[in-house]
Amino acid sequence: WNYHITRFVTSAPDIRHLPPDTGTEVAFAGRSNAGKSSALNTLTNQKSLARTSKTPGRTQLINLFEVTEGKRLVDLPGYGYAEVPEEMKLKWQRALGEYLEKRACLRGLVVLMDIRHPMKDLDQQMIEWAVDSKIPVLVLLTKADKLASGARKSQLNKVREAALAFMGDVQIEMFSSLKKIGVDQLRVKLDSWFEA
Ligand code: GTP
Ligand code: MG
User: Fold this and answer.
1) Which residue in 32, 181, 183, 187 has the fewest CB atoms around it within 10 Å?
2) Which atom number of ligand 1 is nearest to the Cα of residue 176?
3) For 146-191, how does the pLDDT look when each residue is reduced to its tens digit (9 = 90+)?
């Protein structure tokens, strides 16, 4: 599919405000500031399709983008950010949990983690949930440009080994929006999910 022609559809505070639950959706999930919105912009080759920010907690709604009719990408609010008011956190978590549990057209989950701080508890929970729910997962270790190539590779191998031990066969790749690393792997994976 040509991801460059992706366009924004809507932002919703919860799943009741989303368009009908038909077609196929692939969602981008991860801790606040992991680089979800940036990855969407890199994939689609658009500077500001999804809003990015230095401040964690930028994406507060479920944002939907359409690649082509019936094929959508979803930018989810980040989890694990301590600095937001408790009430807001509960609201996002509810929206996120509901989306993951109830959205039948969800066919794939891209879980993004900063390569320097991967596999925190909430990341593991997210992946375990997806594996249990038979939702295929691609893990992207983001901001790979922040590490030298040796450190990058050893971090990737470490995460792959840890993942194998506790969650089986989950594909894990390096990614950088800045240096365009891992974009092809992401595209190939999305193509396979949208095709199925
Ligand atoms: P929330 O919406 O708050 O959950 O964050 P997010 O996961 O959408 O992160 P976002 O894409 O907004 O990026 C957060 C910060 O990381 C921004 O300052 C980005 O410029 C930076 N960033 C994202 N990707 C990369 C990358 O590949 N390399 C580097 N060096 N910085 C990146
Ligand atoms: Mg975001």
Assistant:
1) 187
2) 27
3) 999 999 999 999 999 988 887 877 899 999 999 999 999 999 999 9
Pocket test for ligand 1, best of 11, 38, 93 (most atoms within 8 A of CB): 38
**ipTM for the complex?**
0.99
DSSP state of 19: P
From the CA of 68, how far away is ligand 2's center (Å)? 22
Task: Quote the DSSP letter at residue 145.
Answer: G
Inter-CA distances, 193 with 143, 150, 178, 190, Å: 24, 31, 25, 5
Q: Which residues contact 188 (CB under 8 A, 6 or more apart)?
A: none
Residue whose structure tokens are 């365009």: 180
Residue type, 45: N
* CA 63 vs CA 8, 26, 76, 117, 168: distances in Å: 8, 12, 7, 25, 30
Strands 71-75 and 62-68: antiparallel
